[in-house]
UniProtKB/TrEMBL annotation:
GO terms for cellular component: microtubule organizing center; MWP complex. InterPro entries: Centrosome-WD_assoc, WD40/YVTN_repeat-like_dom_sf, WD40_repeat_dom_sf, WD40_rpt. Pfam families: WD40. This is WD repeat domain 8. GO terms for biological process: microtubule anchoring at mitotic spindle pole body. It comes from the Eukaryota.
Length: 432
């Protein structure tokens, strides 16, 4: 990999433009637009207040910057530096801001989940949606046709609203009640046909709806404590993976909408069979004169490292993250009370194929958006950890920048490079 020199950034605000031409970063109250290949500065825009959020428009021509605390939003055109749009959200406050699909309007989520305001950049008119249940989840977009799906709370009951999100014609298409006690979140299938909804973690309940409100599936467990913690659709929309507080992943299919298998995070592995286990170790290198990290392939019975489960609100328990790869042939997951371990299953064969054990807790993991056999792990240290499929195995690459700790990573959408962030800087890494 080729690494660039480090550049300053604030709060991990680094974003590739959808057309892959630019990288936007924020430093306090300044937006910097860079060329995605060379990182040479193309534009700089100054905001009146510190920047807490930046978002590219879908067509990559506009960049949005917001101070959520003060409710200030600035929108700039990267091809016309003289054009500027300022929006002040006023007494309703601002918790979140998103672009509409057409890039001609923005959605402002007010404080206390009172409403969503859609501001048109063309007409300067506003459209209001009352009673969204959340500001940071519980909504999704369907691109074709352009619809906005929203979890709503009305008269102490949960609903899902489906809206046409054309800037010139925002209107409600359908609304239906959801059979939950306290709806936690929703997720739209990649093909835009199904909505999966799940209840608060106290109740284990999964519901599958069509966009016209027909319930296709209803699965619940009454006798097993806490419920759902994470949900992921496969790219084909034929499978839904549900990670739970009981440390299992249940895989639902689109024929019966019921579990076809349960993936278990075993605390002791007696016979790995096809399962390959890689463990990170520190080893002294005579070449570098210091300890470096490498992976050892482990055979035989193994006690999987885990932490003691604490009896307190939001315990570190259950499958907090599960993600399919780009072709849906693998799913990776981290069980929160095994924070140093990443599990990978083969979906066509329904078997575990890899267990990666790190020395430090895993902060994030990301599949390559294009390459199905490449997964990246970061643990808050100076290394990038890769799993490259069953044949190539694992690899560790050290970021060649002094005192640089990898806290977050963003793949370029074509999978050809990475933005790597620590607390105050970022660099780019290009694959050879």
């Amino acid at each position: 990999m080729n690494f660039t020199v480090p550049y300053k950034q604030s709060s991990n605000l680094c974003r590739f433009s959808p057309d892959l031409k630019y990288v936007a970063t924020a430093i306090e109250n300044i937006i910097i637009i860079r060329n995605a290949e060379t990182l040479k500065v193309s534009r700089e825009f100054k905001h009146s207040t510190s920047i807490q959020c930046i978002e590219w428009s879908p067509n990559s021509s506009l960049i949005l910057a917001a101070n959520l605390t003060k409710g200030d939003i600035m929108i700039r055109d990267i091809y016309d530096p003289t054009w500027k749009k300022l929006i002040k959200e006023g007494p309703a406050g601002l918790l979140n801001v998103k672009w509409n699909l057409d890039g001609k309007s923005i959605m402002c989520f007010s404080d206390f989940e009172l409403r969503i305001t859609i501001w048109s950049l063309i007409t300067n008119n506003g459209y209001y949606i009352q009673d969204p249940k959340y500001h940071n989840k519980g909504f999704c977009f369907r691109e074709d046709p352009p619809w906005f799906i929203l979890a709503e709370r009305r008269e102490c009951k949960d609903f899902i609203g489906v809206y046409k999100c054309d800037t010139d014609d925002w209107r409600l298409l359908n609304v239906f009640q959801v059979d939950t006690v306290d709806l936690d979140n929703i997720a739209l299938s990649p093909n835009g046909h199904y909505i999966v909804a799940w209840d608060n973690c106290i109740w284990y309940k999964i519901l599958i709806y069509t966009l016209d409100g027909q319930c296709l599936g209803n699965f619940s467990i009454d006798d097993e404590g806490l419920g759902v913690k994470s949900v992921a659709w496969s790219p084909s929309s034929k499978l839904v993976a549900v990670g739970s507080y009981d440390q299992k992943i249940r895989l639902f299919n689109n024929y019966t909408w019921s579990p076809i298998i349960e993936f278990i995070h075993a605390s002791r592995i007696k016979n790995p069979n096809q399962l390959k286990i890689w463990r990170e170790v520190n080893e002294f290198s005579k070449e570098y004169g210091r300890n470096i990290s490498k992976y050892d392939l482990v055979d035989g019975p193994l006690e999987v490292p885990s932490i003691l489960i604490e009896a307190k609100p939001s315990p570190k328990l259950g499958v907090g993250y599960c993600k399919f790869n780009s072709n849906g042939h693998f799913i990776a997951a981290r069980n929160d009370n095994m924070p140093n371990c990443l599990w990978i299953w083969n979906i066509p064969h329904l078997i575990p194929v890899a267990l990666i054990i790190q020395l430090s807790p895993i902060k994030h993991f990301y599949w390559n958006p294009i390459g199905p056999d490449q997964l990246l792990i970061c643990c808050g240290n100076e290394y990038l950890y890769f799993w490259c499929g069953q044949e190539l195995g694992t690899e560790i690459i050290e970021v060649p920048i002094a005192n640089f700790e990898v806290h977050n990573v963003r793949w370029r959408p074509d999978g050809k490079s990475l933005l790597i962030m620590d607390k105050a800087f970022f660099c780019a890494a290009f694959f050879l």
